[in-house]
UniProtKB/TrEMBL annotation:
Keyword flag Manganese: no
Origin organism lineage: Eukaryota, Sar, Alveolata, Apicomplexa, Conoidasida
Repeat found in the keyword field: yes
GO terms, biological process: intraciliary transport
Main location: other
GO MF annotations, alphabetized: intraciliary transport particle B binding
PANTHER family: TETRATRICOPEPTIDE REPEAT PROTEIN 30
InterPro entries assigned to the protein according to its UniProt record, in alphabetical order: TPR-like_helical_dom_sf, TPR_rpt, TT30
A Pfam family hit: TPR_19
Compartments (UniProt record): Cell projection, Cilium
Protein name listed in UniProt: Tetratricopeptide repeat-containing protein
Amino acid sequence: MSWNAQGRFIASPSAVALGGDSSGIRVTDAIYRLIRDEQYGSAIRILSRQLSLTPGNRALLSLLGYSSYQTKNFEMAADIYKELSQRFPDNVTYQVNLAQSLLNLGALEEADAFCSALSKASGPNAYRAAMLMALLKYQAGDWEGLEYCLSSNELDDHLAATLRGGRFWKEKMFDLALEAFQRIMKTNGFEPQMAYNIALCHYEQRQFVSCLQYIGEIAKMAMEKHPDMNNGSSGKPGKENSKIWFGKTSSFMKKSALVEAFNLRRAIDFLVGKVDEAAGKLELIPLRLPDTFDKVTIHNQALFQSEHNAGATLDKLRSLVENPPCLPEVLVNLAEKQNMLEKYLLNDEIAFLEALIISKNSPDVALERLQALAEQHLATLRRIKKSLQVLMAQANIHVEQRNYKMVEGLLQHSSDICELDSTWKMNMAHVLFLQQKYADAIWYYEQSLEGNEDCLHTVKSVVLANLCTAYVHEHQNAKAKAILDRLKEEEVTQIKNAEAFERTDCATPFHSCIVKLAIGTLYCAEKSADFGLQMVVEALNPLSDKLRLDTWYYAKRCLLDLSNRLASRSCFVADDTIVTVLKFLQDVDAHARRYTSGRVFSAVKVGYDCHTDLILSVAADRCYLRRRPTTRDSV
């Protein structure tokens, strides 16, 4: 049942402060713009990335908690507000938000404890605490406690009447519930969510004509206020604007009760035997992004697909069970489809679902079954972990022998049990890359990036370097540039935030440096020395931060290779490139004096002390091109 009894959620997010520079201001504006447009998913991605750069930032946590709540990720919202409540115990708003998140999560005991502790709250928080306590009693079925809350607190008459009507509905006294909701409608005028409650009461009494009348009024009002929500409307959003369109209309969709009304109409068709017609009405539900479908819609989709696509039905029902709180109807339908379970699922999967189904009525038995399954799968995971260690040891021997085809075969042979392991995917990408199977390597490298697109600095630099190199080989330069731009943006933000919060323990970010060195080396090897050397020079800029023994080693390889080829007149570069390289060598020498190892920078001396002898002298030091220290990872 759905009605507007939850109360408005007030997160009171603080302003985001990211250092006061123009970059920080742009990020702040972007976050608030996304929240204003109700594009909470995008806001969460940016906030998570910023939090990884400045962990524990209060403003970021507050906004992330608010956005998580709006996307119905109540578990994340509860975790965030719990942290904020512990760090700032004097802020009652955080405690109220935590209680509300726990209430929506179904953690009634925890929510009850927090609501009781908030009994002395004042101002707006006092009303919210009283409202939450009343909702808590309603959800727990504590009718005496509910009446006490409604009589002892100055709650809104609308909320009190709605909760009393909801109580009648829960007790299956549909006549009394209908009267209560109709009185509210008469007092406050037409409200879509209250109209839905009335329609639902008529549905339970099998008064389908009256039910359809209210459903029609709900749909009519929604289409009048938002005609572009009609599938046939010329205002239907294009693919490129769909996310913005959905974001701007999601709030209206919740208030309109339109989705609930469509599902109720389909339920009527289902009851009277018009299953095909009900399934066809699936297309009439206003356009939404798949990840915004509510649980009732997903459940009904599963039922209508059961005759034609049993596998999809089971997937949907199983996903609903595995993501509590679960609709009671889901458990009933799963229990009734035992034959389907036995046909399409493994024994372990059936045992897991059966344990979840009986968990409400027989929690002790469910716990025993789940514990047995956990022990069984834990033993399997241990065996897989040991097998993976043995597999990687075998593969490493073949790698040292440069027998990459054998390594690929070994990894492919274990794909059925290891394909979800991040180490396995990364090594598979590496071995494909070494065999110059760049298209396949890209696929595996991109798998390693999943979930980290907005925080690339958490990905291993060798993965990013090889991925960008593979992009260049496959003529997907735009993708490589996008990664470089994102890395640069993250590194600038990380440095600015460290300065703003006066943190001196932050390590210098090297990801973009390593990626540029890899791309520069590739272009130098492909006889595009001008661009390759430009990338190498950019990679070490600024030298004060990026010049290290390892980075110089790879930069020097390109310079020495160029010198060797220039000496043999096998390539030519522009005069501007020569000038840039010589200036770069001078700057390197100036910064290199802080190092005690003179040999690492010995080739630089030749560069600026005797420019006319540069080609011949540096070519004599080409042994550096072949030497590969075992302590360094190859890019």
